[in-house]
């Protein structure tokens, strides 16, 4: 039932519906604000949470989205090497402007602007993952190949060791 979703979560559901695959946003009474919160609410491993981290390219000033396993830290040097440009972590205002969503609920796709996206290859070996869906209480379940499809992202090794 999407009728009870909050407006931001409903916006994400509408975007997911546009792909014609059955992806369903679920809102929890408990928090899904952090990867650990989301794992606790869903009842999955934190590694199965696809967290959306927004950076800013220092060459173009444009946004970059890295979708990382909840168990991993992003290695900025690896990502910079991939892009051929330095990056910095975006601040909350930049994140909201670029994505249309607040930190803690940033979905992997369906943003206010088209955002260049990199996917953590550690997510690709998992059967099922969960991603944020617009609010700090909303997530949806998907497969790694569905994540590739809906984001158009490039899979890479981006984890800090
Ligand atoms: N809903 C959960 C699970 S999908 C979620 O969105 N988790 S998250 O990890 O993708 O989003 C929180 C991330 O936002 C944190 O890991 C952190 O890197 C980033 N963040 C938190 N506070 C700030 C801030 N003030 N400025 C910039 N980034 C922040």
From TrEMBL:
Start and end residues of each YbaK/aminoacyl-tRNA synthetase-associated domain: 31-149
Pfam family, one: tRNA_edit
One Gene Ontology MF term: aminoacyl-tRNA deacylase activity
Gene3D superfamilies: YbaK/aminoacyl-tRNA synthetase-associated domain
UniProt superkingdom: Bacteria
Protein name: YbaK/aminoacyl-tRNA synthetase-associated domain-containing protein
